[in-house]
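Students often ask why inverse folding is considered easier than folding. One informal answer: many sequences map to the same fold, so there is more than one right answer. In these notes we will look at a single instance of the problem. The structure comes first.
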């Protein structure tokens, strides 16, 4: 466990239901590979979709992949994980996904992904987490965040804590540049 905490870990969030031929799967696979080549350990929720794609991309480049899995889930974790931590509750799972990481990338997903982004973002806003990158990868995010600003109490200052990336290259560059010096 202590060995894992010494790694530079990046958590990747995203939907579990995307197929192998979806843009999210392709982007997550490419991102996992690029981050592994840059020396990062990948952390995901450990199951299918974006989680599998990021894990697969990292493993294909010889990287380490850390999965935070749930004892309550019936499905098997994806086969690309090198390390697993099983949790009993969603909050414990979220805490494990967040507290280990020097940066975060989110791809399009469902309400689970929104929950993950919201929790990380709130922890950054309130100073519970020291500054680290939270990258939203994909075209959907600017419109989603604008809707949040239009309909919720989300300020420009809040949005300034986010980074937006059009592709895996840009997301990886942001993580590399903004995670330097972040300690856990």
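Output (designed amino acids):
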């Amino acid at each position: 466990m202590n060995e894992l905490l010494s790694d530079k870990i990046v958590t990747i969030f995203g939907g579990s239901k995307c197929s192998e031929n979806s843009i999210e799967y392709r982007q997550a696979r490419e991102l996992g590979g690029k981050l592994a080549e840059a020396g990062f350990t990948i952390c995901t929720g450990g199951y299918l979709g974006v989680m599998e794609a990021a894990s697969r991309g990292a493993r294909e480049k010889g990287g380490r992949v850390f999965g935070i899995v749930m004892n309550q889930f019936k499905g098997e974790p994806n086969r690309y994980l090198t390390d697993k931590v099983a949790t009993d509750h969603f909050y414990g799972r979220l805490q494990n996904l967040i507290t280990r990481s020097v940066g975060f990338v989110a791809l399009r997903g469902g309400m689970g992904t929104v929950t993950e982004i919201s929790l990380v973002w709130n922890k950054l806003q309130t100073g519970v987490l020291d500054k680290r990158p939270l990258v939203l990868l994909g075209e959907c995010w600017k419109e989603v965040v604008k809707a949040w600003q239009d309909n919720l109490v989300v300020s420009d200052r809040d949005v300034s804590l986010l980074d937006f990336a059009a592709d895996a290259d840009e997301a990886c560059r942001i993580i590399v540049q903004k995670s330097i010096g972040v300690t856990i």
